[in-house]
Amino acid sequence: MLVAAAVCPCPPLLVPEVAAGAAPELDAARAACTDAIGVLAAARPDRLVVVGPAEQAGRGPYPQGARGSFRGFGVDLDVRLGSADADVDAPGDADRLPPSLAVAAWLLGRTRWSTAPLEGLGVGEPLAAERCIQVGGDIAARADRVALLVMGDASACRTLKAPGYLDERAAGFDAAVGRALGAADVAALKALDAELAYELKAAGRAPWQVLAGAADGAGLSGELLYEDAPYGVGYVVAAWS
Q1: How many Å separate Cα 184 from the centre of its chain?
Q2: For domain 2-240, is the CATH number 3.40.830.10?
Q3: pLDDT of 94 strictly over 90
Q4: Which residue, of 18, 56, 97, 168, has the greatest Cβ tally within 10 A?
Q5: How far apart are the C-alpha atoms of 160 and 157, rounded to whole Å?
Q6: Nearest to 145 by CA among 16, 11, 48, 13
Q7: What is the distance of C-alpha 78 from the center of its chain?
Q8: Distance (Å, rounded) from C-alpha 69 to C-alpha 112?
Q9: Cα radius of gyration rounded to whole Å, the chain
Q10: How far apart, in whole angstroms, are the C-alpha atoms of residue 68 and residue 76?
Q11: Are strands 67-69 and 235-240 parallel, antiparallel or unpaired?
């Protein structure tokens, strides 16, 4: 059963070494992510599952100790998903985690996560809502007390300089996402328009619908901790408990 969830954005820019001189611009987002992960720890889960967007070749599942890297972003920085108790030394493993889960690994390392064993799962952007919801239900059934760390960004079309250029629909979409995540509104998340999310380059749609499936019937309440679009991309942090 799902007992808590944290929702965080997944831009590599959250990692100060990647952001370099722009690092202070996301200090508030980093602090909110730390607070959200604190809610997960306070729930004392038996297991933590980290979910984030991934390409076809990077969906895992990933065991505790799996490695990720930010070398592709020009930074000599490697991370592990949780502790290295279950060491993973497969060839080429330095780049194994997809970027979203590498960011999650960095956040968990920053907060020194040690509350419960964990695993990672990449979710493909095209995954249908029904399948996302089913995956979430399966995750929630894995243990008596399951927590989720859900990585994903809202639209990438909030300004002219955004990665997806300006789309007038983006602000409304992001506002609806913020309301749903802040209120732990499972029905609203299930009803997110997958086609619109794709057009707005909202990479968090599928992970959020996995969360909706996991939270169905759990009776969790939500709190919106951060919402902004500093680079024309919507970033949302929320905690459910």
Answers
A1: 15
A2: yes
A3: no
A4: 97
A5: 8
A6: 48
A7: 19
A8: 18
A9: 16
A10: 11
A11: unpaired
CB contact at 8 A, 196 and 177: no
What tokens does 145 get?
């007390």
Give every CB contact of residue 99 below 8 A, 6+ residues apart in sequence.
10, 12, 68, 72
Conformational region of residue 51, where left means phi above 0, alpha means psi within -120 to 50, and beta covers everything else: beta
Q: Look up tokens 């076809």; give the residue.
A: 56
pLDDT digits (tens, 9 = 90+) for 24-42: 889 999 999 999 999 999 9
pTM: 0.94
Amino acid, single-letter form, for residue 153? D
CA 51, CA 100: separation in Å to the nearest integer?
8
Separation in Å, CA 59 to CA 105, 114, 202: 15, 24, 18
- Return the H-helix or E-strand segment holding 73: none
Max alpha carbon distance in the chain (Å)?
A: 48
Whole-angstrom Cα distance, residue 236 to residue 233?
10
Alpha helices in 43-169 (DSSP H): 99-110, 129-140
Segment 68-92 mean pLDDT: 76
DSSP, collapsed to helix, strand or coil, labels residue 204 as coil
35: three-class secondary structure by DSSP:
helix
Q: Tell me how far apart the alpha carbons of residues 210 and 164 are, in angstroms, rounded to a whole number.
A: 24
Looking at residue 125, the DSSP 8-state letter turns out to be: T
